[in-house]
Amino acid sequence: MDIRTNPAFIRGMTTSRRDALKLAGMSAAALALAACGVEGKKAEAPKKDAVADFWAGKKQNGTLRFANWPLYIDKEGKEYPSLKMFEQDKGIKVSYTEAIQDNGSWFGKIQPQLAAGTDIGFDLMVMTNGNQLQRAISLGYLAPLDHSKLPNFAANAAEKVKNPAWDPNNTFTIPWTLGVTGIAYNPEFVDEVTSMNDLWNPKYKGKVGMMIDAQEIANFGMFALGIDPEKSKEADWRRAAAKLQEQRDAGLVRKYYENDYIDALVRGDIWITMAWSGDVFQQITEGKNLKFVVPKEGATIWSDNMCIPKTARNPVDALALMDYVYQPKIATMLVEYINYITPVPATKELVLADAAKAEGEDKEFLEQLANSPLIYPSDADLAKMRGYLMLDSKTDQLFESIFQPITQG
Amino acid sequence: MRKRKLADRLLFGYVWLIIAWLFLPIAVMIAFGFNDTQSKSNVSWQGFTFKWWGRLDEYPDLTDAMINSIQLAVICVVITTVLGTLMGLALGRYRFKGQGATNLIMFAAISSPELVMGASLLSLFVSTGVDMGFTTALIAHVLFCLSFVAITVRARVVGLDPSLEEAARDLGASTWTTFWRITFPMILPGVVAGALLAFALSIDDFVITQFTSGAMQTFPLWIWGATRIGVPPQVNILGTLIFAVGVAIAVINSVTARRRT
Amino acid sequence: MKRLTPYLLILPGGLWLAIFLVVPMVFMASVSTQEGNVVDGFTQTFNFANYADTLVLFQTQFLRSVGYGLAGTIIAIALAYPIAYWIAFKGGSRKSTYLLLVLLPFFVSFVLRTVSWKFLLADEGIVLAPLKASGLLPEDFHVLQTSVAVVGGLVYNYLPFMILPIYVALERVDPRSVEAAQDLYATRSAAFRKVVLPLSLPGVFAGVLMTFVPMTADYVNAGILGGPQNTMIGNIIQTKYLVNNDYPSAAALSFTLMAAMLVGIFAYAKALGTENVLEAAAR
């Protein structure tokens, strides 16, 4: 074989003006044809009997297609132990796919199918309580949950996760896992952190990490100013944006990170950063010298939630799994692997019981897990935590236009 | 004479320096496939181990994504090579009305950023209500590889001497025979180069695939998702294996090339 | 039949390009003049203000992207030309091996390679830490999140697309004509200037086309290696499409970007007079 040829020898790649005009003419004609808008689909308010309507005549099919984030379920070799138990107990075979990388691209992918009312290839998915989930709810893309089929959720879920502001009465979602956005830092370079203002400390110039997500940084800007993000108004957003802009202009921010801040922190590119609790916990158990704090002004609590797309083929099977993982022993299997906040408080005792049976490193790890405020936050910490602000389509655009110039200037 | 030798030697050193630069990140990637990491993230060196090689299939989704990537690339190569070769022949051999328009469209395909292509395809698929997945991703891959193959083949065709083919026809060979016996062997290097290029473009594509693959995962997309919690060493090993295939091709090629001269 | 041959050859590929390139563009053009949002839907209002608004809002990123694209392209030419020259004239029987060496890194997934760069260039990483320890670099020196890192990443990722076309052009130069020129002009440099360089220009042109466009529209390098001061227009478009679902603005930005690219490339082709060169070569 001999590559004597040219992979891109642009030759005669020119065109006469007439051809260009012809093409332009064609496009204009087609443009006129395509000049119609994309239908908006505002959902009607859920009717009282929406639940009964949806579930009427639906039955268990024995299969379930579950879309989740990468590395977000317990695993042994090739097996998912919790799903295996589910299959043995309920006779439902789960095909599990790590199909979701981030809420934005995931929603972008499924939105067309949901708008057209066709199957997206999954019966159960996990989405964060941010803009995309709000959109899915307001567009009527999600199935209303039949809570009579969720006894374990009613019995075992923490009060904190029931009836969240963004989904009253858990009409469409129940949590898979929760997490906190707080501050992580490297004590080698940074004095003890207690306050949001430490992210504005000029000592750490160029060594501060912030997140690129508009809602994440907006919340931090508001906490720093003592504003409750869940109750904030446009004037508050503008003040928060000015505060964040100040931080950027002073050259403090090394980068607005997506999900790669943890590597930067471990490698020493940054010393202090906004961070998700589970990421930091995993690094600490590995022996990294890092600390995670919930600043005195507050921190953001978020949840990744299970929900059923309206077009699901096996919604009854999906509902069965949603309830199944709220059994304490199953929730324990999950938390021991995922290391984020579990919505089932009863797992703490079970993790300690597992620790008592374990040896060496495993024992140490499980004890750390059960006693970690990153997995089982204290009531004092929980009281300081706030969720994301709820935005409708109009305010959403305004909100983005205020905060995006900071992260993408 | 001595001066020339020195200049050549400097240039030779420079070439290897650049090649080393190109390979540096690859070396890091290979090394971290042997990292004895204890957790789900793989960013700091914790000792040497072979254990991940025996646990390659631990992530069924990753394996599926890899298979999807390879299937996509192979089918894309087959389609683009056939269509692109035909286009290259037409453009290099004939002069016809509409050539300018064809060139313009090919030119647009090469010079429109991937991002723009992906976004516009997404708008099309959304508006027509097509289910997105393997097929839509394949359409997109063929779209952005096709022009490269066509241009590569055309460059080869233009440099050909038509007298051989004329001679074959004068001797009574049919068009079909002439093509397979004379034309095709002559343009083969161009076709192979185009196919290789298409394969390389397709297997590593991230941007367009992100827009058009629906819920289907490919290898690059899976890695992108995994960065949220940490890229497992298995990914590095798969990367190493793909790379090894490339090295094997290079070595075989080098040996046969030397035998030819 | 004979007159139809080229059309039959062009048809399958040409149709593919026309359907999947031109038609989606038309849809996107339509979207770019609409107003609305995902929840309430979009309506076609021929709102051409989208173009003006987005251009004003993101002119910095536009200019920065073009700047990075230009810088990356120029550096790529400087790096690629000597390599292509050496492989073409001194490679001997190993030519294709060297070319494969240049292409090999591209068998490895782009995301993985960029993650590796992040590791290599870390502030306390294997490259910078020793230099800082020996006092050659100040303690707060960093490469990541600077323009240097972004442009470096762009050059790294698109270098082969510059090397190959230049190599092909040089490979067509008959070494005997170079020797003859050397006898004529007596110095190597003059021979190079008068014979080799002009003959290789079409290759450089093709290389520029293959690197400048993708570099300018790239968002992955700026996303991974850049910082707050390095956002490129691609990052904006991607965010608007996939995160904000603000399709009209995203489509308008995409179109502006594409138009700018096309105008630039045609102007460039005219200025270089490559048209004539290429036309002549094509006959």
Automatic annotation (TrEMBL), chain A:
Keyword Phosphoprotein applies: no
Signal listed as a keyword: yes
SUPFAM superfamilies, per database record: Periplasmic binding protein-like II
CDD domains on file: PBP2_PotD_PotF_like (cd13590)
One Pfam family from the record: SBP_bac_8
Subcellular location: Periplasm
Protein name, as recorded: Spermidine/putrescine transport system substrate-binding protein
Organism: Nonomuraea africana
UniProtKB/TrEMBL annotation, chain B:
Keyword Iron applies: no
The ABC transmembrane type-1 domain, residue ranges: 66-253
Keywords assigned by UniProt, alphabetized: Cell membrane, Membrane, Transmembrane, Transmembrane helix, Transport
Source taxon at top rank: Bacteria
TM regions (residue ranges): 12-34, 70-92, 104-126, 138-157, 178-203, 237-256
Subcellular location: Cell membrane
InterPro entries: Bact_Polyamine_Transport, MetI-like, MetI-like_sf
Record lineage: Bacteria, Bacillati, Actinomycetota, Actinomycetes, Streptosporangiales
Gene3D superfamilies: MetI-like (1.10.3720.10)
Pfam families: BPD_transp_1
Annotated family: Belongs to the binding-protein-dependent transport system permease family. CysTW subfamily.
Major subcellular location class: membrane
Extent of the signal sequence: none
Name recorded for this polypeptide: Spermidine/putrescine transport system permease protein
Topology of the protein relative to the lipid bilayer: Multi-pass membrane protein
Ranges in coiled-coil conformation: none
From TrEMBL, chain C:
Domain ABC transmembrane type-1: 62-268
Membrane-protein topology: Multi-pass membrane protein
Keywords of the record: Cell membrane, Membrane, Transmembrane, Transmembrane helix, Transport
Membrane-spanning ranges: 7-27, 66-87, 99-121, 141-170, 191-213, 250-269
Highest taxon listed in the record's lineage: Bacteria
Major localization class: membrane
Family from the record: Belongs to the binding-protein-dependent transport system permease family. CysTW subfamily.
Official protein name in the record: Spermidine/putrescine transport system permease protein
